[in-house]
Amino acid sequence: MSRARSGSPIFPWRYGMFLALLATIAPLALAFPWHQAVMAGFDIAALAFMASVTSLLRADVMAMRRKAVANDANREIMLLMNAIVSLVVLVAVGVAVGEQGTHKGPTIALLLVTLLAAWLFSNLVYAMHYAHIFYRAGPEGQDSGGLDFPATDEPGYWDFLYFAFTLGMTFQTSDVSVTSSSMRRTALFQSLAAFLFNLGILAFTINVLGG
């Protein structure tokens, strides 16, 4: 499908909501240690973000193309924000894990929820990013593409979720072929981030079992 190329400075409302809810860390920090406030604030923001994303699963291809145009100017900003937030959360988790004598039920539950929320949030952001790269306008107005889904010419968000979560879990692309440099670059960044995250989970597990 041919259409004009365009970008937009619009900041996606879902990410704005996420950052606004993340600000709940400030009041939480007055009552709890900073690392617990970071984890709790992130959990609240991430769960709200994930709830808001569910409506996208019903989007058709035309709606996905419109969203790709609307988010075109902010692709790198979104991934940078995701990386920074994930790093801060992992540091908070590391501090909590390193504390002696604090591995009680509520603390362990908060750690587990935070790790799960961080994993889901990161993969969701990448899935949306892949969709926006795929459906942004190319040099001649056609879809940029970059991923080859078997027997699927116009993939939906479920397809991009499949690709992102498969990559996040296994560090490989399964039956989907990567056919563009921009997609390979993004897939590489996601694989590296997933590897570091999995190391964090392994360290957490060893620490809890050993403590």
Characterize this entry briefly.
By secondary structure, this protein is mostly helical.
Helix percentage: 55-70%
% residues in beta strands = under 5%
**Strand order across the largest sheet:** 1-2
Biggest β-sheet description? 2 strands, antiparallel
Oligomer: single chain
How many separate structural domains?
1
Low-confidence stretches: 1-10
Radius of gyration, in Å, reads 18 Å
- Molecular shape: globular
Separation of the first and last Cα atoms: 58 Å
Number of helices: 8
List SSEs in N-to-C order. Answer: HHHHHHEHEH
Content-based structural category:
mainly alpha
Question: Can you tell me about this structure?
Answer:
Helices cover 68% and strands 2% of the residues. The chain has 211 residues and is mostly helical. The protein is globular and about 55 Å long.
Supply the key terms.
single chain; 211 residues; 8 helices; 2% strand; disordered N terminus
Topology:
Elements: H1 13-22, H2 25-29, H3 34-53, H4 61-70, H5 75-98, H6 105-135, E1 147-148, H7 157-170, E2 177-178, H8 181-210
Antiparallel strand pairs: 1-2
Helix pairs in contact: 1-3, 3-5, 3-6, 4-6, 5-6, 5-8, 6-7, 6-8, 7-8
